[in-house]
């Protein structure tokens, strides 16, 4: 990598305030706020709207769509399409 053209890559804390979950990782993103982490060091913190702790896919609260019911309702409303199409 060429020196001087890339942003600094360092430790950052990402915090999901809705779930009360935070994790330390490395990133080029930086935040204006700082936080004291579990190891006693201070790191920049970035507040995020959603993370794996609060996303419905990861928490198991995702809704499954009833596709069979939707198809049957469509066919009742508009009829089955016949022919070779």
TrEMBL record:
Write out the GO cellular component annotations. Answer: ribonucleoprotein complex; ribosome
Which keywords describe this protein according to UniProt? Ribonucleoprotein, Ribosomal protein
Q: From its record, what is one biological process in GO terms?
A: translation
UniProt-listed Gene3D superfamilies: Ribosomal protein L31 (4.10.830.30)
Q: What molecular function terms (GO) are annotated for this protein?
A: structural constituent of ribosome
Pfam families for this protein: Ribosomal_L31
Quaternary structure annotation from Swiss-Prot or TrEMBL = Part of the 50S ribosomal subunit.
Which NCBIfam families does the entry mention?
L31, PRK01678.1
Q: Which family does it belong to?
A: Belongs to the bacterial ribosomal protein bL31 family. Type B subfamily.
Q: What is this protein called?
A: Large ribosomal subunit protein bL31B
């Amino acid at each position: 990598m060429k020196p001087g053209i890339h942003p600094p890559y360092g430790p950052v804390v990402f915090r999901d305030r809705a779930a009360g979950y935070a994790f330390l990782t490395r990133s080029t993103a930086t935040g204006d706020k700082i936080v004291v982490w579990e190891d006693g060091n201070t790191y920049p913190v970035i507040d995020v709207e959603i993370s794996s702790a609060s996303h419905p896919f990861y928490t198991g609260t995702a809704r499954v769509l009833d596709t069979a019911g939707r198809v049957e309702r469509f066919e009742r409303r508009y009829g089955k399409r016949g022919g070779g199409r």
